[in-house]
Amino acid sequence: MKTWIKSSIAAAVIATGALGTTAALAWGGQCDGPRGGKAGWSKMEPEQMKAKMAERADLHLARLELALALTPEQKPAFETFKADMKARGERMAAAMTERREAAQPKTAVERMAAMEEMTKLRATELADSRKSIERFYATLSDPQKTVFDAEFRAFGGKGMRDGMRGGPRDGGGPRMGQDRG
């Protein structure tokens, strides 16, 4: 290969690396997700994360309450449901803080055991949440159930999975499997 070609390739590689470094620094050094999304959550202090999660839960619950147009008879059931969801969020935040502060698993076997433990915890939390939702859902009219189904999807169902995969977040666009037209 000619010397000028090698020099050109080397210059292109260096320029590309420099451009990537500049972009990373311009974004504050956090290159773990899109700007404006949930990038950097893993770098937040536990109290910041807990406050942010509580804020998001309050927002989702307020939206849900408005969208459902609850009757006075349904309000106590919604308050119970809301309290259950908030308690679940606090337990999840506590578990995340505990995991962060615990010693990291060193071996593949230890990592698998930790994942298994977390899966059991999530399964228990999910079962408790389902029971709470079933109690509240039973108080809703058919039109309210339709609204609940649509609104709750973004509360923690598909909306959460999209966010974890780098997909649309917080209403930032169509979710996977939804019509884009």
UniProtKB/TrEMBL annotation:
The keyword Oxidoreductase is assigned to this record:
no
UniProt protein name: Zinc resistance-associated protein
- Biased composition of type Basic and acidic residues is found at 159-168
Keyword vocabulary terms for this entry: Signal
Question: Mind telling me which GO cellular component terms the entry cites?
Answer: periplasmic space
Q: Which organism is it from?
A: Thauera propionica
Extract the ranges annotated as region (Disordered).
158-181
From the UniProt annotation, give the residues forming the signal peptide: 1-26
- Superkingdom of the organism of origin: Bacteria
Sequence intervals crossing the membrane: none
